[in-house]
Specification:
The complex is a heterodimer of chains A (about 375) and B (about 290).
Chain A: H1 5-14, E1 22-25, H2 28-38, E2 42-46, E3 59-62, H3 65-75, E4 79-80, E5 83-84, E6 88-92, E7 96-107, E8 112-118, H4 125-131, E9 136-141, H5 149-159, H6 163-182, E10 185-196, E11 201-203, E12 207-210, H7 219-222, H8 229-239, E13 243-246, E14 251-255, H9 258-270, E15 277-280, H10 287-298, E16 305-312, H11 317-330, E17 337-343, H12 346-355, E18 360-361, H13 364-379
Parallel strand pairs in A: 14-16, 16-17, 17-18
Antiparallel strand pairs in A: 1-6, 2-3, 2-6, 4-5, 7-8, 7-10, 8-9, 10-11, 10-12, 13-15
Chain B: E1 11-14, H1 19-31, E2 35-39, E3 47-48, E4 51-54, H2 57-64, E5 68-71, H3 75-87, E6 92-95, H4 102-115, E7 118-121, E8 126-129, E9 133-136, E10 145-152, H5 156-167, E11 172-177, H6 188-197, E12 203-209, H7 214-225, E13 230-235, H8 259-268, E14 273-274, H9 279-290
Parallel strand pairs in B: 1-2, 1-5, 2-4, 5-6, 6-7, 10-11, 10-12, 12-13, 13-14
Antiparallel strand pairs in B: 3-4, 8-9, 8-11
């Protein structure tokens, strides 16, 4: 789960990490009022749950009230990577001498929380990572020790020479780590962390992502969730025990298991087709689940063919087949369906499917090819 | 021979009185696994499928001398269950529970290291050494004893692969589902080494997926340490960036962790990568004849 910059900075403030003075606004008039309150210059920043706002023109410096209004008018309603900008953050313009990057994330390799720091702040950190990976310093943190004062100082000394700055930074790093742990984050970033002309460290921007698996114990964080249309659909699916992700193709997929679901999409692509979705129905043969899954797939009007790929493990194929036939009896499905069942009791399952006059195939490859050829025929 | 689990495995089931725990305890026992006990706090003294239930892992260990534990408790309690097993002196812990918070796993890992406890998972289907022991939720009937060692980040895709191997007469020494979470126990490198050291294993199949750089690291490890033939498959070649594909770990973020990068890493060290699951048995047959 992701949150907006202004929300991340609210959390930073709560932990006494200095952030820019700023006001969240929904209209150009509010932006003007905020600008007058904050004093010029100000920065008007789009608040969307996508990266690359600056490049998309979603961040503008305003030196006059009129240009603040103009920037707000331009940015509000703008589309950034599929997200419509509905709110902007108006932040005081700050004079600073240098920019840094600091961030915390999970490192799969050391299986620990890792602190990342760089003197090359203010630019996209992914680019630094690609072009100049040595510029990003990495410090894995021992879980049972946490961010001890000496360790925070060690990181700070890698960025600063001045001892008063080192102390300021070390204190900030400890707070940042505390935030990471206490909110079950998967990413906390300040980019840039600036050194102001007054000699203070300040978070000019903030980014936080959270571990979805831990939201059950982070009610306050979960309340900040603002799912978009696609994500709402994904959440509704999850409540029914389905994992659904909409894609842009025309072959609907129903598969049991995430890995097999990915491999099924890959196979469709391999043979020149285009999957409409990722859908993992999990390990149940409950007809209701198949109905829910079918409804979800068909709610995407691009879907021309549905390909069902079930590998029976603990789940028996004959059970799945009965579920499928029951599901299709209960709902009207107008698009062609291709079924592939393999694994436990597949022979019995295939007989049931055949009796219901559905086309069955033996292998994944055949299923993908059949789905694609049906799709091509319909497109003619 | 085989790796990690075999005829000498003595298994306890944590969460044995739950729906999944009791169901799979029965399945594992029916397969022939030596299931010696179960744990469920407050239910000590009961029997599940003829398996004695204990209140604590320590108690179960004392009574049964088990060496392996499998965990079916709900995700919020899973980390604690892993710690309990480790504290009681279990050698190998398999955590099936799905949806364990990542920071819980981060906390658990150093403690296991200190105790010398091996962990598989969380969020994994478990493992099997065919005809010896099934410790997990894998469908035992599709496996066949043989010489292919397999490791995988996903469940049903593993079954698909194994099914094809078995149909082609290629049996398996041990198949391990390492799980789809970002922070997990034993991973490619450790398992590659175990298969390398296992005389029964003649070829290794590695089934990876998008996200992270574990496959790239595995490729490097194969180049430096593994002499046996390895073939790979990567799921998620068509996945778009920024979308989590079911598994918490399966996400392409900021242009890294893509299937292309992983495939290139394997091919650069001479590990053939199957573009479709059906190619795996062909590749192994080819390599085994060559070797």
């Amino acid at each position: 789960m992701k949150i907006h910059e202004y929300q991340a900075k609210e959390i930073f403030s709560r932990y006494q990490i200095p952030v820019t003075r700023e006001v969240l606004c929904f209209t150009p008039d509010e932006v003007v009022a905020a600008t007058e309150k904050l004093c010029l210059p100000v920065v008007v920043k789009a608040q969307v749950l996508a990266g690359g706002r600056g490049k998309a023109g979603g961040v503008k410096l305003a030196r006059t009230v009129e240009s603040a209004r103009e920037s707000a008018t331009q940015i509000l309603g703008m589309d950034i990577k599929g997200y419509t900008v509905e709110k902007v953050l108006v932040a005081e313009g700050v004079k600073f001498s240098s920019e840094f990057y600091v961030g915390l994330t999970i490192d799969r390799n050391t299986k620990s929380v890792i602190f990342m720091a760089s003197k090359e702040g203010g630019v996209e950190i992914e680019e630094v990572a690609k072009e100049n990976p040595e510029a990003i310093l990495k410090f894995p943190i021992e879980a049972d020790l946490g961010m001890t004062p000496f360790f925070a100082r060690k990181i700070a000394f890698a960025l600063f020479d001045d001892i008063s700055l080192v102390k300021q930074a070390a204190d900030l790093f400890q707070k940042l780590y505390k935030i990471f742990i206490e909110t079950d984050s998967s990413l906390v970033e300040i980019n840039p962390l600036v050194l102001t002309d007054e000699g203070k460290l300040l978070a000019l921007d903030g980014k936080m992502n959270f571990d979805d698996n831990a939201l059950f114990r982070q009610a306050e964080i979960e309340a900040l969730n603002e799912p978009n249309e696609d994500e709402l659909k994904e959440l509704a699916a999850k409540e029914k025990g389905l994992t659904y992700i909409r894609l842009d193709g025309n072959i609907g997929c129903m598969v049991n298991g995430a890995g097999l679901a990915m491999a099924t999409m890959d196979l469709i692509k391999y043979f020149g087709g285009n999957p409409a979705n990722f859908l993992d129905i999990g390990g149940s043969s409950n007809p209701q689940k198949v109905i829910d899954a079918m409804e979800l797939i068909l709610s995407d009007k691009n879907v021309k063919v549905v390909m069902i790929n079930i590998f029976g493990g603990i789940t028996r194929c004959d059970d799945v087949a009965r579920g499928l036939v029951a599901a299709l009896d209960q709902m009207k499905v107008e698009v062609p369906i291709v079924v592939r069942l393999a694994g436990t009791n597949s022979k019995e399952g295939l007989e049931i499917i055949q009796k219901a006059n559905l086309p069955v195939v033996e292998t994944m490859s055949q299923a993908a090819q059949k789905a694609i050829s049906l799709c091509n025929e319909l497109s003619k | 021979m085989s790796i990690l689990v075999n005829k000498n495995t003595k298994l306890i089931v944590q969460g044995i009185t739950g729906r999944d725990g009791s169901f799979h305890a029965g399945k594992m026992k029916a397969y022939g696994t030596n299931v010696v006990g179960g744990v469920s706090p407050g239910k000590g003294g009961q029997l599940v499928d003829g398996i004695p239930v204990f209140n604590t892992v320590a108690e179960a260990m004392k009574a049964t001398n088990a060496n392996t534990s499998i965990i079916f408790v709900p995700a919020p309690l899973a980390a604690d269950a892993i710690l309990e097993a480790s504290e009681a002196g279990v050698d190998l812990v398999i955590a099936i529970s799905e949806g364990v918070p990542t920071l819980d796993m981060v906390k658990v890992i150093p403690y296991l290291k200190k105790n010398g406890t091996k962990l598989i998972g969380s969020n994994c289907p478990g493992l099997i050494s065919p005809d010896e022991a099934l410790v997990g939720i894998l469908p035992g009937n599709i496996f066949m004893k043989g010489n292919v060692g397999l490791m995988s980040r996903s469940g049903t895709l593993t079954y698909e692969m194994v099914y094809q191997l078995t149909n082609q007469g290629l049996g398996q020494s041990t198949c391990v589902g390492i799980g789809g979470d970002p922070v997990a126990g034993l991973y490619y490198q450790e398992l590659l080494q175990m298969f390398e050291d296992d005389p029964e294993t003649k070829a290794i199949v590695l089934i990876g997926e998008i996200g992270g750089d574990a496959e790239e690291r595995a490729a490097q490890y194969i180049k430096e340490h593994i002499t046996k033939p390895v073939v790979a498959f990567i799921a998620g070649q068509s996945a778009p960036p920024g979308k989590r594909m079911g598994h918490a770990g399966a996400i392409i973020s900021s242009g890294s962790g893509t299937a292309e990068e992983k495939i290139a890493a394997f091919e650069a060290v001479g590990v053939p990568v199957a573009r479709r699951p059906v190619e795996i048995p062909e590749l192994i047959k080819k390599l085994l004849k060559l070797n």
